[in-house]
Structures are given as structure tokens and as C-alpha cells.
Amino acid sequence: MVQVIGLITVIFFGILIGVFWLLALRKGAKPRGLRRIEAYESLPATVGAAVETGHRIHISLGSGTIGEVTTAATISGLGVLDQVASVAAISDKPPIVTAADGAAMLLAQDTLRGVYSRQNASEQYDPFSAQVAGLTPLGFGAALPGVLDDEMVAGTVLIGSVGQEAVLLAEAGRRADLTTVAGSDLPAAQAVLFATADQPLIGEDLFAGNAYINRRPAHLASLRAQDWMRIIIGGLIVLGVLLKTFQLLP
Amino acid sequence: MKIRFGNLVLTVIAMIAGWITLLGYFLNFAAPFRALLVGWVVILGAVAVILGALSLGAVHLKKIFQQGRGWPYSLFVILGLLIGLSAGLAPILMPLFEGLLSGTAPSTAATGLGNPYSQWVFRYLQSALGTAISGMIVFFLVFAGFRLLRRRSWRLTSVVFIIVAIVSLIGMAPFFNLDIADLPVIGQYTLNAVRTWPWLWLSQVPAVAGARGLLLGIALGAIATGLRVLLAVDRPYGE
Lengths: 250, 239
Description:
The complex is a heterodimer.
Chain A: H1 2-25, H2 38-52, E1 56-62, H3 71-88, E2 96-99, H4 102-118, E3 130-132, H5 137-150, E4 153-161, H6 166-175, E5 179-183, H7 187-196, E6 199-201, H8 209-214, H9 217-245
Parallel strand pairs in A: 1-2, 1-4, 2-3, 4-5, 5-6
Chain B: H1 5-26, H2 31-66, H3 71-102, H4 116-152, H5 156-172, E1 185-186, E2 189-190, H6 191-204, H7 206-230
Antiparallel strand pairs in B: 1-2
Helix pairs in contact in B: 1-2, 2-3, 3-4, 4-5, 5-6, 6-7
């Protein structure tokens, strides 16, 4: 029974995304406004400042791995990497990407290669731009301050799965007076980043980066479907509480 | 828009593999295929760990040879990699050398998790250094909490954050091992109860509700990201 409900939920979610996508592709369809997320609003200025001052932008995919529960957060980080690198690649100092997993590093290299290829600048692509900073979460966290210092970074974007070790990156950014945009899929890390990062991403904001940056209809449709699913699930929870309170459920 | 054949093949393979893995969770007939694909992922994951270690070594070797900023620290990274690698290979290589020297067949030794050399490295190097870093995180968090109000100029969320942090600290602190009976009584409550009650309520009611809300949002975001990959809207592979 639980499996059937799960399958129906996933299919329904997929259909919702499809429907909103088709609605967004209609002729004359107006793009829907989005709630303000300061972190994403500040991103173009951070990247622009890095490009103008001839510094690097540092994009971190966190210590998550591909093939486990952290995959979605890492993929979300890769989407933002694609968008940020598209702008920052024109700089003398190309963006630098850090990960804690070999597969995430390969995907980051592939993303960067794609960005340079689209801009007909494949010769500028440096495979060392995407690197593994540490193989364990704590090792990764401890290595990040060194990356900020050694690579002359002007701003950091951390989008992925990362634990409380993210505080080491945020602190290093503060000491170097850099802007840090950071979000994680772990609630404990979100609390830490709320206190330490300049622009923290809370809750599902982590997964909204693509929609906010590139405004593609499919990503906006995905956000809209998420909102509807939240309303439906919230409604079902309230209904369940009422039924249980009035003893209408066994 | 120009569609490359290679990208199309990659997309189709990724979509089929993704849908089979997803359906394997819900439909019994797809479960063996899911298990097969997940098995392949485990093997690829192991290869990715090796690639990650090679990347780490290559980046730091490059830094050492080019004498880039902070290159002396890279020496320690390379030294750590070599120590870790040597500890992993020691149970295999040492009996082999002993066998060669004595002219007898090499004895078998514990490898993997039972490897005593790796255990020593983990216990006395990795674990010790990890604990030291974890200890530093506490101080960073305390300082970050103090800076929060100054930086965010008394926003409501910042004030709530600080109040919750203070109440939690008061509630969780050991209170100098004082006997509860020695503490003054306020009305019908002991000071200890007054001290811990707000923290217990905060951690069991609003914190749990908030965490569930956050987790629900994160789960929906993760599912939406997964569905976008399955629908080939997002392609984190290929150009």
C-alpha cells in the first residue's frame, strides 16, 4: 500500500510539473513572479565583482556524493555552477570548483567543459578548475579556507550537501571579507550557515537556484509544482490531525 | 537548436536507467533491474573515490612544482596520501617481502577493515585531527552567534535565533553539578525545572515542527530535481 501511494505521489508530481511546463510554454503566457531570495539576487553582483576585479569565484558542491541521498543537492549545485560559470568564464581567472567526491568532480569538469565549449573557448578550459578538496567531510571543510586564500577568490557559492564543517568555509570567507552564498540540504548545517554565511539559503531554496537564475519555463514549472505539492501535503496533514483528533481514524 | 547524437544517446541511457531505478522501488518486477543498476553505481562509486584521490594528489603536486601560494601545506597532503596508501597496501606487500626473503610462501594478512595499519592511521591521525577540527567548529559557532546581531541589524529572525540559542544553552548546561534539592524553589517549581522547561518545550514543539517543515521542503525539492533529471530537463552529464 505504501509503495502504491509513493508511486502515485511521484507520478502526480511529475504530471504537475508537465502541466505547469506546458502552461508556461503557451503563447502569451506571462512568467510568474517569484518570492525574493536575497542569496540568488546577490549572486550576479558577486560574480560581476569577481570578474571585474580579476579574481576567481569559488563554487563548492559540498561533501555530498553522487549515487546517494545527497545526489539531488549536488545536482542542484551543478545547475548553479553552469549558470555562474557561463558569466565568470570570460574572466582572466576562471571559476574554481571544489567537491569531496570523484563523481561530483567529474560532473563539475563536464559542466565547465560544456560552458567553455558553448562560448567557443574550449582551449581555456582547465581540468584542474574542478578539484576534490578533501575526501572526507571534515577534510573537505578544513581544505576550503586554503582554497579561498591560495586561489585569490572574490566570492564563494556553496550549494550542495554539507554538514557543520561549512562553518570553516564561511569563517574563512568572513576573514577575507568575501561574500558567501551558502545552502545545504541538512537542517543542522542550515542553522550553522544562517549564523555564519552572508547569504544563507534556507529549506528548499537550495533547489530553486536554476529557476531564479535562468528563469527557464521548465524550472519555473518545477517550482510551481513544488508549491502545489506542499499545499496538498500540508492539507492532508491537517486533515489527518483533525480525523485523528475526532477519532474518525483507527 | 542543434542536437548532438552523442548527447541524445547519453540522455536516453540516463533516462532509462533513472526510470528503471525509480520504478524498482515501487514495482516488484523492476526490482532486480534496480538492484543491478545500483550494484553498478557502487562499483562506479569506488572508481570515483580513486579518481578523487588522484585529483587531490595531482592538484597538490602541481601546486608544489609550481610553488603556488601555500605550497608547503600541499606537502602534508601528499605525505598524508602516501601514509594512507602505504597503510592500505602494507598487509599485502609485507608478507610478500617476508616470503621472498625467507623463501617460503607469503602468509595471508588482514586487509580492508581488519587492516591494523589502516586502523592505526584512522585512530591516531584521521580521527584525532577530525576531533580537533570538530572542537574548533564549536568556537566558530559561538563567535558567529555573537556577530549575528551586529551583521543582521536586529532582524526578527536574528533575535529569535539568539534567544533560542541562549535558552538552549541555559537548558542544556550541566549547572555545575548542583544537587536539585539545593536549588531554590519558585512557587511549586524548582529552579532546575524553570531552567530546563523552556528549552524542552522549544526543542520538542517548535523545533520539531520547524525541522519537519524544512525536511518536507527539502524532500519536495529533491524529488523535483530528480524528476527534472528523469524528464531530461536537467542534464548534469554531457554538454
